[in-house]
Every structure is written in C-alpha cells, then in structure tokens.
Amino acid sequence: MGWVLADGTRSRVTDYHNKVLVLDFYATWCLPCRQSIPHLASLQERFAREGLQVVGLNVGGADDRVKVADFAREMRIQYPLGFPDKSLSDFFLSDNQTLPQTFVFARDSRLVKRFIGYESATGVELEKTIQIALGK
Known about the structure:
By secondary structure, the chain is α/β, with parallel strands linked by helices. The protein has five helices and seven strands, in the order βββαβααβαββα.
C-alpha cells in the first residue's frame, strides 16, 4: 500500500521513517481542500528543517488527475504530490469520504491523528499536532 509521486517514484509511509509525515488526501474541485493547502504549504516551509514532510494525494478521480499539475501551479504547492494506490485510499477513507482528510504520522511511522474536513480550528489543531510530533 502506497502511492506514486508525480515523478513516478513509488512511496510508502515507512519510507518517511524519522520524519513527521503529513498525508493530505485532496481533490482539485474540493473547496475546503483549497482552503487547507496554503496552510499545509506554510507548515511544510516552516518545519521542513525539523523533519516535516507533507505529501498531497489526489483522490478526485480520473478526470481530476489531469488537472493536478495546473492546480499545483495555481496553489503554489511546493511539497510532493502523488496518487494513492486504491488499497491505500480504501484503507484510509473507507469509513468517511469527506475531503480533505489529513493524517499525521510520527517519526516511527505510527498514526498520530486524523483530521476530516477543514476549517480554521482544524488548521490550529493540525499545527499543534505537528509541533508535538516534531518534539517542540
């Protein structure tokens, strides 16, 4: 279970051992996703040197895949984007298909917290969760 990055590289959660990994399941047409992405980009920029890695995974469907490159430019996304294996998205999203969904993993690849949807309070809680996982 993993994902393919835009450059064709295959990845899994365990590939980010010793980093705090944030997996963000999004779609280009999702309004709350568009609100959360600038915050994720800011967190990536601020905490990259301390071991944070944000990865965006598009689950918008086949029609949405072709829009990702333009979306990344429009949203100024600097962190890696990819496409999850069906088994990965089924595993993480099977009980709730609300987007975005953001998963924070500790340095030992253990899931710390899941965020469903996005509003300003979610952004505050996400940042606190990341800081704790980074040991701040």
